[in-house]
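Lab notebook, page 48
Experiment: co-folding of the full assembly
Goal: obtain a model of how the components sit together before planning crosslinking
Operator: M.T.
Materials (sequences as entered):
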Amino acid sequence: MSDTVESVIVAIDGPSGTGKSSTSKAVAAKLGLSYLDTGAQYRAITWWMIDNGVDVGDPAAVADAAGKPVIVSGTDPSHPTITVDGVDVSGPIRTQEVTSKVSAVSAVPEIRARITDLQRSIAATAPHGIVVEGRDIGTTVLPDADLKIFLTASPEARAARRAGEIKGADVAATREALVRRDAADSSRKTSPLAKADDAVEVDTTDLTLQQVIECVVTFVEEKRAATR
Ligand SMILES: Nc1ncnc2c1ncn2[C@@H]1O[C@H](COP(=O)(O)OP(=O)(O)O)[C@@H](O)[C@H]1O
Ligand SMILES: Nc1ccn([C@H]2C[C@H](O)[C@@H](COP(=O)(O)OP(=O)(O)O)O2)c(=O)n1
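Observation: model returned without errors.
Model output:
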């Protein structure tokens, strides 16, 4: 019998602060899979729009520019990278300005079409499979994924986690901004944040990150065992 492990595609979706990035990176590293942070791609294209003076409040202007930036994602879970036109933007895409504008840019259908194509080609060429995290991976980007996980957590827990990353952050203001962004992401017309019908929902409110990672690793191993 060969000890080659079959390729597996895992989709992890959910609102902000539920633990998607931390969980996906750890699961991918543990199982030898690639890792793709799709939020970073939407942030990168938003950063480019701001840097190039495109009015992000004007969907037609954003749509016109959608094809211009070249976005490249590195998929090593222990060292994920993101560049726009060859420039490392891993720091600049996390600013407050990008965070406050990313929902408007990512609601534009031409932006979603471009980024979705990119995501599908990255997933199709991952040598041993991939963990892809975002908002619409299970519903739209990879509807045939082998395993779909939808992470949730209370707004209070999510705000406390996010605020904990920034020194002196106000938890109430963080909660308000996060709930506002989730509402925008969930109500847009094109591929909104949503749980796929066949996704497994995991409420992480009272779980440690380690427990969530172990839970998802178990799901992947069960899936692999069932298809062997
Ligand atoms: N289950 C958990 N318990 C406590 N903190 C967590 C948990 N999951 C993630 N975190 C922390 O919360 C923050 C946000 O997690 P992240 O993975 O970036 O979420 P998302 O990608 O869903 O926005 C990080 O600082 C992370 O370490
Ligand atoms: N698959 C995806 C991933 C992210 N987005 C959009 C909507 C999100 O508010 C932004 C930023 O996503 P990101 O995962 O970086 O957000 P947080 O880590 O939760 O702050 O991108 C999307 O529309 N579709």
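Interpretation: The chain has a mean pLDDT of 95.
Next step: discuss with group before ordering constructs.
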